[in-house]
Fold:
Amino acid sequence: MAVNAWRARALMKVARETKSQALEADSLHFASDFFGSIPVMAGLALSAYGYDWADPVAAIVVAVLISILGFRMVRRTLATLVDTAPEGAADKVEAAIRKVAGVVEVERVRVRMVGPRYFIDAAVSLPRTFPADRMAATKATVQQAVTGLFDDADVTVVTTPIALDNETVLDRVMVIARNRALAVHHVTVHTIQDRLAVALDLEVDGKLALSAAHELADGLENAIAASLAPRSRWRRISSRCNRRTPAGRDAPPERVASVQDALSELAAHNGALRNVHDVRVRETDDGEIVNFHCTVDPALSVQDVHEKVDTLERALRARAPSIKRVIGHAEPMR
Structure:
């Protein structure tokens, strides 16, 4: 009995260190011998004093002990065969994931065990406004948080970008541009009466023909206008980036007419820019913002057109100091 007790204890210690169920089963075998010997000895002693019922009772006690130990071992072995994780492991993983900054929702957590190793599969939702590097960083943080819970774990994290209720117009614009693999900057959003006036600069290859660049810009405008409809009015303009939607107002018709006359006069001296049209003047707290369209030769490169438009913009600002920003939208002549 002493040897069996020592072997059972030693095997159980190693089984827990190595998470070996084979050694644990062997430990239970010796433990059943030790605990089973106790009622046997008691039954023999009582039988020697004339208690004939002691021996069968001892046999029943031994059978019950072996059944209990065997049931425990079978239950744990079956759980291992079907990859059942310890109770509460999934809740523990989900709680750790929710503490990671940036995680909006935990969609799914699956935990299973293969031998001593945990295999964890998690799906989390992140704001779609996160840039790619922040998405990757948040995913890595989630993996580290879960891995730290267990000694041996294989963690797989799947991220899903979602739109949040508090997403700003600027956020939506940047997401749509990024999804179309386009670089934009100087995005502004103004509220004019009951509509939004959204403006941005689109970056393209300076050697690209204007007609091709115009198609890219039109596609982006249509995509964003569809996303913001029916409250949006689109113009490609420049200004500093902000997250609020400050109020603006359309200038009086006579002011718009005077600006259009000045633009037409300056364009005539420029030579390359023709047919100045669709002139808009927006009054803001920072000053007037002028937006106009003109036509140019579609064979010109974006770089050439950009220089011509910049020259016209600078000339108009020099003539009217109240104008803080001028944005020209060149369209290929049809």
Q: What stands out?
A: The CA atoms of residues 281 and 290 lie 5 Å apart. The longest strand covers residues 117-127.
